[in-house]
Amino acid sequence: MNRQRILLLSVVHPATDPRILYKIAPSLAIHHEVFCALPNARSNQQKSNIAFINLPYFRQLLSRLLFCHPVMLWKCLRIRPDLVHIFVPELIPAAFLFKWLGAKIIYEVQENLYKKFSIKQFNNGLVFRAIFRLFDHLARKSFFCVFTEDAYLQEYENLALPYAVIHNYASIPFMDEYGAREFPVNEKPEFFYAGVISMERCFDVLVTALSKLKTRYPDFRMHLFGPVRFQPGEAASLPGYAEIRPNLIFYGYTDQKRLLSYAKNAVAGIALLKPVADYPDSYTTKLFDYMALKLPVIASDFLLYRHVVEQSECGFCISPYDAGILYQKLLWLIQNPEKGAVMGRNGRKAAEIHYNWKQEEAILLSFYKTILEHSGGS
Questions:
Q1: Signal sequence span per UniProt (predicted)?
Q2: Which of 176, 256, 333, 350 is the most exposed place for a label (fewest CB within 10 A)?
Q3: Contact assessment for residue 271 and residue 286, using Cβ atoms and an 8 Å cutoff
Q4: H or E element: which one contains 164?
Q5: In a domain, 377, yes or no
Q6: How far apart are CA 110 and CA 89, in angstroms?
Q7: How far apart are CA 252 and CA 229, in angstroms?
Q8: How far apart are CA 240 and CA 210, in angstroms?
Q9: Helix (H, G, I), strand (E, B) or coil at 178
Q10: 349 is a domain residue
């Protein structure tokens, strides 16, 4: 029996996107023939039965539409997939072409753009917003949908076809392979952050807290992994930034296989976001990654986060505007390593029981089976 062809497609996500590359693709490859089309993908980037299709990358939407989408269509239409799973809304028009040729389509919603437009720095014009709304509503009527958050269902009502919520929880085996944890005694404490680095994600608050911490621990290190979403001048104008700049290590976007090793000596993982856009309704993936790594977590005091962190007793939920409280929690974790280790183990236990990719994988595979056996909506 021939294995059905699955195309995982994005023109925005990096070639090492953890959800696509290290979770969805390997889970599907056990049962299907999987093609993964991503910007700057390399055919040898992962030793598995996943075929990679390299796409060019452009930051601006217009450039992608003109120069990336035609290349994507030329390369991907030829494989004649049975199912196409798109990860960004700009691919909805192309998805209709795949649908016309007989493929079934999954439209994955990873953010609530209706709320997120308010803080987007790129591709945020009124024309872009209007076009998005048009095609997004067409997709609701024509495609199967995957949502990464339960809260998105409040926006996406009356869907025409079956849908699934598949959270972006941590892959425990992956974390264990690349992020073995130690519990250090910290004369030179280290802290860990993985994700977009922006003022909306409390970089300004972090700077203020760390500038206070430097008076007690002048040799601390803050590991920051992810793209920076502010101008150098904005950071330079923050009080205390010049003093702590030597303590901050910016790595840029980094493959998760590499960055996890830097967490092994960390005192805490930072997961602070301000209550803007869709942040209060959406889990930040780093929260579950930190828990799987046995890192004590310092997260925003959103009700959604408190339900996880406080119930699991794996860290602190604090105001994302209060640098003084952040400083106090960092200091407490440095000075109470045994209690911090207990928090870390609590988080790991909760991840193993509730917040792991294995259970989400079961939902994914069941949903795919439903779609591929579905007689309509192809």
A1: none
A2: 176
A3: yes
A4: strand 163-165
A5: no
A6: 10
A7: 11
A8: 8
A9: helix
A10: yes
How far is 201 from 143, CA to CA, in rounded Å? 32
Taken in order 204, 209, 215, 216, is the CA torsion positive or negative? negative
- Using CA atoms, how far residue 184 sits from 188, 298, 328, in Å, is 10, 18, 19
Do 187 and 139 share a structural domain?
no
Note if the pTM is more than 0.90. yes
Dihedral Cα 150, 152, 158, 161, nearest 10 deg: -70
Same domain assignment for residues 213 and 327: yes
* Torsion angle defined by CA atoms of residues 251, 253, 254 and 255, in that order, rounded to the nearest 10 degrees: 180
Asked whether residue 341 is assigned to any structural domain, the reply reads yes
- pLDDT (tens place) for every residue of the chain, 378 residues total: 578 999 999 999 999 999 999 999 999 999 999 999 999 998 665 556 899 999 999 988 889 999 999 999 999 999 999 999 999 999 999 999 999 999 999 999 999 999 988 787 666 778 888 899 999 999 999 999 999 999 999 999 989 999 999 999 999 999 999 987 666 556 799 999 999 999 999 999 999 999 999 999 999 999 999 999 999 999 999 999 999 999 999 999 999 999 999 999 999 999 999 999 999 999 999 999 999 999 999 999 999 999 999 999 999 999 999 999 999 999 999 999 999 999 999 999 999 999 999 999 999 999 999 999 876 544
Who contacts 246 (Cβ-Cβ below 8 Å, separation ≥6)?
Answer: none
Say if residue 203 is in the same domain as residue 159: no
Same domain, 176 and 105: no
The verdict on 269 and 234 lying in the same domain is: yes
Strands 297-300 and 221-225: unpaired
Same domain, 147 and 185: no
